[in-house]
């Protein structure tokens, strides 16, 4: 049984965060574990409150997991403060965690800030170096690169810029593009595009969390990063195509489509 650890915030409405991660991991028939970085009060229409875990308590959760059931892969999602990022980076290094997928969550689909401004540099220089792959969406890639992204060429420029400080795999997700949902992978000087037509479904809450957890599952299974992205995109496409329609805003995905 493959064991996957998700380090992320809780979304009480079940669409994103740790809930999306655990649903994805379970759908892959793997064993999911969670280190909760924050409780959020949110739903499909917005985020109404955030209550962060203390760094000490996050460290205790990490010790409890790593000292007992060692994960085959780790997915990191929302970690909003500098001190939390620091403690997570220290613990992942101490336990020599492997197959780390970092989704640098900054803003929710509904528009709320999930990363403090003063934590961006810590994320870039302490957590990113530990990751095998980072999966920014377009606004996150703009923040990491300082480049305004309007089209696919800008995505390539941003990836090149980010790669100056990060040697791992960079997947810039194109879900926010107008006319396609093409994602760009950059690694070792090479660009690879994962082209996908936009599925007519505005219920995309949790797509980023789902994609990054699904990548972690395939990495744990021994697939390469490029293969893992391909598998994860297939999983996500199935969940999007199912057209679940819940809530009054941008609704969540259905993870039961392939069971
Ligand atoms: N309408 C769509 N049709 C097909 N694929 C989509 C669609 N929307 C998003 N995706 C895919 O979902 C994944 C997440 O993309 P996106 O750029 O929306 O990330 P995100 O903003 O982090 O997600 P989230 O909505 O969870 O914040 C990408 O692989 C993207 O291509
Ligand atoms: C706890 C948590 N983690 C991540 C997201 C981002 O997901 P989305 O952009 O789909 O709102 C979120 N809204 N909440």
Automatic annotation (TrEMBL):
Gene Ontology CC annotation, any one: cytosol
Range of residues in the leader sequence: none
Any matching Pfam family: Phos_pyr_kin
ATP-binding recorded as keyword: yes
Keywords: ATP-binding, Kinase, Nucleotide-binding, Thiamine biosynthesis, Transferase
Gene Ontology MF: a single term: phosphomethylpyrimidine kinase activity
Pyridoxamine kinase/Phosphomethylpyrimidine kinase domain residues: 11-254
Alphabetical list of SUPFAM superfamilies matching this protein: Ribokinase-like (SSF53613)
Reaction(s) the record says it catalyses: 4-amino-2-methyl-5-(phosphooxymethyl)pyrimidine + ATP = 4-amino-2-methyl-5-(diphosphooxymethyl)pyrimidine + ADP; 4-amino-5-hydroxymethyl-2-methylpyrimidine + ATP = 4-amino-2-methyl-5-(phosphooxymethyl)pyrimidine + ADP + H(+)
Biological processes per GO annotation: thiamine biosynthetic process
EC number: 2.7.1.49, 2.7.4.7
Pathway field: Cofactor biosynthesis; thiamine diphosphate biosynthesis; 4-amino-2-methyl-5-diphosphomethylpyrimidine from 5-amino-1-(5-phospho-D-ribosyl)imidazole: step 3/3; Cofactor biosynthesis; thiamine diphosphate biosynthesis; 4-amino-2-methyl-5-diphosphomethylpyrimidine from 5-amino-1-(5-phospho-D-ribosyl)imidazole: step 2/3
PANTHER family, sorted: HYDROXYMETHYLPYRIMIDINE_PHOSPHOMETHYLPYRIMIDINE KINASE THI20-RELATED, PHOSPHOMETHYLPYRIMIDINE KINASE
Family: Belongs to the ThiD family.
Identification of the protein by name: Hydroxymethylpyrimidine/phosphomethylpyrimidine kinase
Protein source organism: Sedimentibacter saalensis
Highest classification ranks of the organism: Bacteria, Bacillati, Bacillota, Tissierellia, Sedimentibacter
């Amino acid at each position: 049984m493959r064991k996957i650890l998700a380090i992320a915030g809780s979304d009480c409405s079940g669409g994103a965060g740790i809930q999306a991660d655990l649903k994805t991991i379970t759908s892959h028939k793997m064993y999911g574990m969670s280190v909760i970085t924050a409780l959020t009060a949110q739903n499909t229409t917005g985020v109404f409150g955030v209550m962060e875990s203390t760094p000490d308590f996050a460290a205790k959760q990490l010790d409890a997991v790593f000292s007992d059931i060692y994960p085959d892969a780790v997915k990191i999602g929302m970690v909003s403060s500098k001190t939390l990022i620091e403690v997570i980076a220290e613990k992942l290094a101490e336990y020599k965690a492997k197959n780390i997928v970092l989704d640098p969550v900054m803003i929710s689909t509904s528009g709320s800030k999930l990363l403090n401004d003063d934590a961006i540099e810590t994320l870039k220089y302490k957590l990113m170096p530990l990751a095998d792959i980072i999966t920014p969406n377009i606004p996150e890639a703009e923040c990491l690169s300082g480049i305004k992204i309007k089209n696919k060429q800008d995505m390539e420029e941003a990836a090149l810029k980010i790669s100056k400080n990060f040697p791992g795999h960079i997947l810039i997700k194109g879900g926010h593009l107008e006319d396609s949902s093409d994602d760009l992978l950059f690694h070792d000087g090479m660009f690879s595009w994962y082209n996908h037509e936009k599925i007519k479904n505005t219920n995309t809450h949790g797509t980023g969390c789902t994609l990054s957890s699904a990548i972690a599952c395939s990495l744990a299974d021994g697939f390469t990063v490029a293969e893992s992205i391909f598998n994860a995109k297939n999983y996500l496409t199935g969940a999007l195509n199912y057209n679940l329609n819940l809530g009054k805003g941008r609704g969540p995905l259905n993870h039961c489509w392939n069971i």
